[in-house]
């Protein structure tokens, strides 16, 4: 049996593009590049294109009547690393990403026997793409929200690409991955896998009181 330091990790990309499958997605492309980089650190993973599923508005674990979030949540809770990936629209994260954050709010009511949120042992990172400015603003929002609901953010926990403002070139249209984005992706993957193994081995203490 592999030691906790080398045991395989799992990752899940929640792709918050506004484009349903099978449309090409820059967000999916960079999300997959993160999964590929994580694979070099003993991590297997998959993507969910959230817009393909009927995720209902609300802040409960299950909004009933065919709500798809409970099935997606099962995958989130089974993963060591959550990759929240969003395009940039009007300088903001997508409405789909906002819906995911709102549904994750329900985790504030879910605790283990020692008072810890069930997300306390999980790492979260961000992926942002867009042909306009916004990546720093968006990652700041995602980091705060994900941390609020119990995820741990590693150093250098975002990879992104900002295209030239007011132009139409998307990340998926590039002939090759820019070196700075590739470097950010590699660092994110190394740090996320390292932190996930630390949390698996040590975890957080019981909540006082």
From TrEMBL:
Q: Which GO terms describe its molecular function?
A: oxidoreductase activity
Q: Where is the NADPH-dependent FMN reductase-like domain?
A: 16-156
In Swiss-Prot or TrEMBL terms, this protein is called Multimeric flavodoxin WrbA
Q: Organism source for this protein?
A: Ornithinimicrobium cerasi
